[in-house]
Design brief:
The chain is mainly alpha-helical. The chain is globular and about 55 Å long. The N and C termini lie far apart (54 Å). 63% of the residues lie in helices and 4% in strands. The chain is built from 14 helices and six strands. It has one domain. Helix 5 crosses helix 6.
């Protein structure tokens, strides 16, 4: 929301940092959970050939990239950034979700140490590479600097609204490393295994947060980018001349802190809602419907910028709570009365339907016959979700 008076900009930025936990990292985490869940279910039932699942993933990603491109063009026109053709390749929440789903599909079933190596490599490379290209463009990305190789690299790899390509990959590998096994156990029967993987994910998420706190270090007021923005926006609300890196948006340690916090929250909600039956609560059901329309809420809530309000701190909190309740009521009415017609999620179903008419899924082989994978075809979806210490990369069950 944007109904902020300049008199409390420091408090607003602090709240902005807090709400940032429920932004791109949460979107990416939930999309990875959904992708792993789908892969495991299709692997167990043999409903789709791997080539058909890959085709569905490409169709879904193409829709996200299309919507993301339109979003970039509209945002660029509204803000007056004048990014021109670069707005077509700028990362946004839609392209971030598409990239994270592709990474999940490519790595699901890989050994955890391989994901850990990829994560560490990205964390190690990000800081010097970002610093080098920023120095080359003079710490100011303009239409002129985008015509240079360092400017183009910086824009493609690190600039995004609200998250860049490298940061998306870091979050995707961190979530996949910590949560793949947990999600696979959550969609399969077996309480003991579910509890075991739940503990592992909690340990991994706490480890991410501890690493960000203990190893992040401090950055002074002479820093550029988000660090200087933090100190400027906070003003007297922040009494020190330095800040920990874990509070600097988009820093590696800030990303790990947010991933750890989101995974901890996901584990708590899974325990309270899915395991203990909290999903039967009427309020929970209504909020869960909003989760189905998360992309629509993300885009349409920006319309509040056109409401000319200037509120004090307490008035803004009250208005935010009332708006959240209004969104829950409106989204549920939209879903119940109209079936979500006109939402981005409705558009995704229509988009997928167009491609389904052009290509029918590969027919399933009858039980007991040789699997298509053994005959040289693509075979069923095999995400390789690990079960009992062994990979489930195998043919369909007879």
């Amino acid at each position: 929301m944007y109904w902020a008076s300049a008199s409390w900009s420091g408090h607003f930025y602090a709240f902005y940092l807090l709400s940032d936990f429920f932004g791109p990292v949460l979107f990416i985490t939930m999309s990875i959970f959904g992708t792993v869940s789908s892969l495991c279910k299709w692997a167990d039932t043999g409903e789709l050939a791997r080539s058909d699942y890959r085709r569905r993933l490409l169709v879904r990603s193409s829709y996200l990239l299309l919507i993301g491109t339109v979003f970039n063009i509209c945002y660029d026109a509204f803000t007056g950034f004048n990014e021109g053709p670069w707005a077509l390749v700028k990362m946004n929440i839609f392209s971030a979700v598409a990239l994270s789903q592709a990474i999940t599909y490519a790595t699901c079933g890989s050994r955890p140490y391989l994901k850990a190596i990829a994560l560490v490599a990205l964390l190690v490379v990000k800081v010097p590479l970002e610093g080098e290209v920023l120095r080359a463009v003079g710490y100011a990305v303009t239409p002129d600097t985008l015509r240079t190789l360092p400017g183009a690299l910086y824009f493609v790899l690190f600039v995004g609204n609200p998250i860049g390509m490298v940061d998306t990959a870091i979050v995707a590998f961190a979530v996949s490393l910590a949560a793949d096994e947990f999600v696979a156990a959550a969609v399969r029967p077996g309480t003991a295994r579910r509890d075991s993987t739940h503990r592992k994910m909690v340990i991994a998420s706490v480890s991410f947060m501890a690493a960000s706190v203990l190893a992040g270090g401090l950055v002074g007021s002479d820093a550029t980018g988000e660090a200087s923005k933090f100190l400027f926006q906070m003003g007297p609300a922040w009494p020190w001349d330095a800040i920990p890196l874990l509070l600097v948006r988009h820093s590696s340690w800030n990303l790990l802190l947010k991933v750890g916090a989101v995974l901890c929250l996901a584990s708590l909600l899974h325990r309270a809602i899915d395991v203990k039956g909290g999903s039967n609560n009427r309020v929970v059901k209504r909020v869960m419907v909003c989760g189905v329309y998360s992309f629509s809420i993300y885009v349409y809530h920006n319309m509040t910028v056109f409401i000319p309000l200037e509120l004090d701190w307490y008035g803004w909190i009250l208005a935010s709570l009332l708006l959240a309740v209004a969104f829950v009521v409106a989204i549920n009415a939209w879903n119940d009365k109209l079936g979500g017609v006109g939402s981005f999620e409705w558009g995704a179903r229509r988009w997928a339907g167009l491609f389904r008419q052009m290509h029918r899924p590969a027919p399933l082989h009858p039980p007991g016959q040789q699997s298509p994978g053994a005959a040289g075809d693509a075979g069923p979806v095999q995400p390789g979700c690990r079960e009992g210490g062994r990979s489930t990369r195998q043919g369909p069950r007879s």
